[in-house]
Amino acid sequence: MQTSQRAREAVTDAVLSSLSARGNRFATEVHCQIHISQLVDQVLETFLAGVGGDAAGLWEHVRGGWSTPLFVTPTDVWRRLPYGKTVTSDAAKIHPGVRHCLEMHPTAPFTITDLVTDRVWDTSAIGRSMRAEWGRNFQLMVPIDTASPTFWVWVIGRQRVDFGDEDRQVAAALQPVLTAVSRHFAEIQRARPPEARADSLTPRESTVLCLLTDGRAPAEIAARLSISPRTVAKHIERIYRKFGVHDRLSLFASLER
Length: 257
Hints:
Blueprint: H1 2-22, H2 29-51, E1 55-62, E2 66-73, E3 86-87, H3 88-94, H4 96-104, E4 110-111, H5 112-115, H6 118-123, H7 125-134, E5 138-144, E6 150-158, H8 165-191, H9 194-198, H10 203-213, H11 218-225, H12 229-243, H13 248-256
Antiparallel strand pairs: 1-2, 1-6, 2-3, 4-5, 5-6
């Protein structure tokens, strides 16, 4: 019980410190996007530390739409994901956790081995595809369901050790805070006009933009995110294009308007 309480306090503190640190700087729509990206990243890291695992992420699943990984930590997990944006019905065929959420609308944290045996999971198509990077690949999921077509799942993965009762208790204690963060994320997305949403920054672009506004050089951004300088340059190029600018000075001027 003490572990659960400490974990919940840590995640709550991460949320509050992120909100207070940003202040009024994030009053504009773009700044709100940067803010929520930083907030989710910080909560994910605290969530991962609180439960314990090798990686964590936030996935969005839209019934009748797409399943998309929105945020992951550590950052090198992006290149290790077996699949990215996928039609939700197809993702449900591949992954028992997605299928469980679609069909059963769970409200409590659950593990993959609650749904299928370890052997079935390990020998499935997705289990085999992940084995090289993730070993046995145990997963604990915290579902955030709503009445809307969209639901979110916070996921923690471990390579060798399954999750037990204490891990579930910690995840359950964190669920109210994770729910609040998910709904905050959804409200910001929903508040954006359709044309802005269609041309929005990706989570990775938002992270690069945040580091740029903090004065980080492209080489430093590449090292921090464990990606190549060329990839950083491409992210910056796409950010410039979305803001209709051609250099960093013009970008900063646009952000201050």
